[in-house]
Amino acid sequence: MTTSIQTMIQNAEHVTFMTGAGVSTASGIPDYRSKDGLYADKFHGLPPEYLLSHDCLVQQPELLYAFVKDNMYFPDAKPNVIHEQIAKLCNAGRASLITQNVDGLDRQAGNQQVVEFHGNLYDCYCTSDQQSVDWHDYMKSMYHDPDHGVIRPRIVLYGEGIAEKALQQSVQAVEAADLIVIVGTSFKVYPFAGLINYRRPGTQLVVVNNEPIPAGSVTAQYTGDAKAFFSELAGK
């Protein structure tokens, strides 16, 4: 199965990769819903779904700030072979990437064809004057010095919509593909999972993940370590 999927990737005219947290766990960044993931423990007795919500930003911004700062930033993390191989295909003009990840590792890997569907933790701004703020300053304080406005990363919180540009680019990437490869995601979060509904008739759909996922009519599925899969792909 590994060889057949890798052959499909090599022979496709245009591959669109759709990736999730399982890609970055190989770089030491925890996922969300596994037993050791970000959502495993409550913080101040509150569920992460609230702490990462627009309601929390408005009502208790200091809690959102503490949770994000202490649990989501891994500036020393480096791209792994999955990021690197996808970037190589994308930059060769043979692929596109839509990622749920907000860690910026795909851009760090040099990928020039990535849509960060849920935003990027390292892209911060002041909610009062909309000015960009260096993430290092955000790590020091949640308040913007000039106007004492609340700083936030430009990520999609619960209760917020996907940025229109990201949504349009994602739909275009799915429509352009003759092969869609889903990597490292439970594929249960919408509207991300719903993007495959925009694929053209006949577009092949394959999955590289630790466990089977509910992605509808799948052409082929590799159940195992995505890092091992892409390491083998790199050697071909």
Structure description:
The structure is a single chain. The mean pLDDT is 92. It is built from ten helices and nine strands. The longest helix is centred in the C-terminal third of the chain and has 13 residues, at 164-176. With 236 residues, it is an alpha/beta fold. The chain has a domain at 1-29 and 78-118 and 160-236: Rossmann fold, CATH 3.40.50. 33% of the residues lie in helices and 18% in strands. The protein starts with a helix and ends with a helix. Pfam families: SIR2. InterPro entries: DHS-like_NAD/FAD-binding_dom, NAD-dep_sirtuin_deacylases, Sirtuin, Sirtuin_cat_small_dom_sf, Ssirtuin_cat_dom. It comes from Furfurilactobacillus siliginis. Residues 1-236 form the Deacetylase sirtuin-type domain.
Low-confidence stretches: none
SS content category? alpha/beta
Q: Could you give the order of strands across the largest sheet? A: 3-2-1-7-8-9
The H-level CATH homologous superfamily of the domain at 1-29 and 78-118 and 160-236, spelled out, is: TPP-binding domain
The rounded distance between the terminal residues' Cα atoms is: 15 Å
How would you spell out the order of helices and strands? HEHHHHHEHEEEHEHEEEH
Strand content: 15-25%
